[in-house]
């Protein structure tokens, strides 16, 4: 080490590469690539949810060029619960849903989406952040399940007048493969 070496900026060590065989969905982040349903998907964004009581979940926005969905990951007592969902128009679950929420701060007990009835399972208060920054946003979420508890509809209230909806289904981790970290 020379006399002036203390003034040189230290080189950052590259993060160690994970063996693709050892990777899980938890290891992925924005920019990474994976395969699902016979397509290759790029993770366009990564999000984190804080549900309180030290309970967190992750969500990835996946894009295949001709399709887009959200992959939600939740660690439930050591088991990984996964779901995929797509944004839908709130009007698709009933014209009265938005009005009911705005007028009463409550969501209906049941919804009908594409001819199927969904029953309210739970209401959650949470905080959300895009993992590219540290700004948290508070929101309320109502989760509805179909009779088989395999498909769901979620209604989210983000502000006084901003209400969003999504529809999806539960999936298995084994359906995702070929993780490629950028």
Descriptors:
SH3 type barrels; 1 helix; 2 domains; about 180 residues; about 50% strand; mainly beta; eight-stranded antiparallel beta barrel
Description of the molecule:
- The protein has one helix spanning 95-104; strands at residues 33-36, 39-50, 56-63, 68-76, 79-88, 110-113, 116-130, 137-145, 151-157, 163-171, 176-180.
- The chain has 182 residues and is mainly beta.
- The relative contact order is 0.20.
- The protein is 5% helix and 51% strand.
- The chain folds into 2 domains: 27-85, Roll (SH3 type barrels); 87-171, no CATH class.
- It has an 8-stranded antiparallel barrel with strand order 2-3-4-5-10-9-8-7.
- The model is unreliable at 6-15 (pLDDT under 50).
- The protein contains 1 helix and 11 strands, in the order E-E-E-E-E-H-E-E-E-E-E-E.
List the helices and strands and how they pair.
Elements lengths: L32 E4 L2 E12 L5 E8 L4 E9 L2 E10 L6 H10 L5 E4 L2 E15 L6 E9 L5 E7 L5 E9 L4 E5 L2
Antiparallel strand pairs: 1-2, 1-11, 2-3, 2-7, 3-4, 4-5, 5-10, 6-7, 7-8, 8-9, 9-10
């Amino acid at each position: 080490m020379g006399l002036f070496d203390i003034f040189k900026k230290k080189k950052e060590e590259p993060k160690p590469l994970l063996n693709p065989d050892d990777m899980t969905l938890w290891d992925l982040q924005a920019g990474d690539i994976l395969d699902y349903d016979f397509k290759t998907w790029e993770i366009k964004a990564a999000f984190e949810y804080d549900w309180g009581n030290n309970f967190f979940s992750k969500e990835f926005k996946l894009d295949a060029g001709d399709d887009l969905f959200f992959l939600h990951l939740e660690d439930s007592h050591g088991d990984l619960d996964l779901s995929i969902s797509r944004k839908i128009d709130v009007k698709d679950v009933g014209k009265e849903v938005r009005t009911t929420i705005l007028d009463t701060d409550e969501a209906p007990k049941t919804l009908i989406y594409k001819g199927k009835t969904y029953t309210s399972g739970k209401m959650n208060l949470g905080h959300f952040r895009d993992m590219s920054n540290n700004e948290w946003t508070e929101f309320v979420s109502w989760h509805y399940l179909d009779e088989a508890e395999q498909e769901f509809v979620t209604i989210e209230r983000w502000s006084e007048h901003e209400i969003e909806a999504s529809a999806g289904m539960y999936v298995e981790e084994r359906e995702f493969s070929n993780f490629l970290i950028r």
